[in-house]
Design goal:
Blueprint (H helix, E strand, L loop, with lengths): L2 H10 L4 H54 L5 H12 L4 E7 L2 E6 L6 H13 L10 E7 L2 E10 L7 E8 L1 H36 L1 H11 L18 H28 L1
Antiparallel strand pairs: 1-2, 1-5, 3-4, 4-5
């Protein structure tokens, strides 16, 4: 058997100490690095969504105050449209509905009436109330794009209760987050692969004294048993103790064999 074949057989043998140590360290490293990568991904998503949720919640909270301000100079419907026009921008849309039916809307870039209607229907399909009593948030998907929605009650004067919806397209942010997750997974996999190789080489080097001891004792003749002195390079304390024990055992065995020869002769 060639040296390379013997190395591979020892490396993958389940009973090999090298295999057990390498697999054990690899499992612990996988748990540690995997947990860290998962925590970083979760923390990044929490920070990203938290920032957007605060932005949308602020809009929901400010709209009633803005309407009261504009009502002094404009009719209610005009004031409502003016406010949501000012509050909508870029990928953010603001919608007002009564009993689930859209009455006023201001759409962000790349959005149209059909998308807004489907967003409202999707939110209602998520089990959120048609007329909420408190501010709530959810993530809905329409046409392969992700939207963060914040909805809350809108009570103006003595009018029927309205529902205020604020939609923000977060597709690009989630795509970047998924790309970050992929990068973390790739980096963790490369790190684990490199660590497994490094551990295997280190364990091989650490077990080299035992291999030397095995090679020395494997070719001992009976006449040499009482004179064995195993010299190992850079052997750990535990291995040195094992060598001393083996030398003492071989010395006792040689003495017993001598006594047996003397008895038989």
């Amino acid at each position: 058997m060639s040296k390379g074949s013997r190395f591979i057989r020892q490396l993958v043998a389940p009973s090999s100490l090298r295999t057990r140590l390498t697999v054990g360290v690899a499992i612990l490293a996988t748990l540690g690095i995997g947990s860290m990568a998962a925590w970083m991904s979760w923390q990044t998503e929490r920070i990203l969504l938290g920032r957007h949720e605060r932005q949308l919640t602020s809009v929901v909270a400010q709209v009633p105050e803005d309407i009261d301000r504009y009502r002094t100079a404009l009719p209610l419907d005009d004031a409502l449209q003016k406010v949501i026009d000012l509050r909508s921008f870029s990928d953010l849309s603001v919608v007002v509905a009564v009993d689930g039916n859209i009455t006023t809307q201001a759409m962000g870039e790349g959005q149209d009436d059909q998308i807004v209607e489907r967003l409202v229907e999707r939110v209602q399909g998520e089990g959120l109330p048609v007329v909420p009593t408190a501010v709530d948030t959810a993530i809905v998907t329409v046409d392969g794009r992700d939207y963060l929605v914040c909805l809350g009650p809108l009570q103006v004067a003595q009018q029927a209760p309205r529902t205020l919806y604020v939609f923000l397209d977060i597709t690009e942010d989630r795509d970047r987050l998924n790309a970050l997750r992929s990068s973390l997974i790739a980096a963790a996999a490369l790190t684990l692969a490199g660590l497994a190789v490094a551990v295997a080489l280190y364990v091989k080097r650490a077990l080299q004294p035992l291999r030397q001891m095995s090679q020395i004792t494997a070719h001992l003749a009976l006449e040499e048993l009482g004179h064995v002195q195993v010299r190992l390079d850079n052997a750990p304390a535990e291995v040195s103790e094992l060598v001393e024990t083996c030398e003492a055992m071989l010395a006792r065995l040689a003495k017993a064999l001598d006594q047996q020869r003397q008895f038989t002769h």
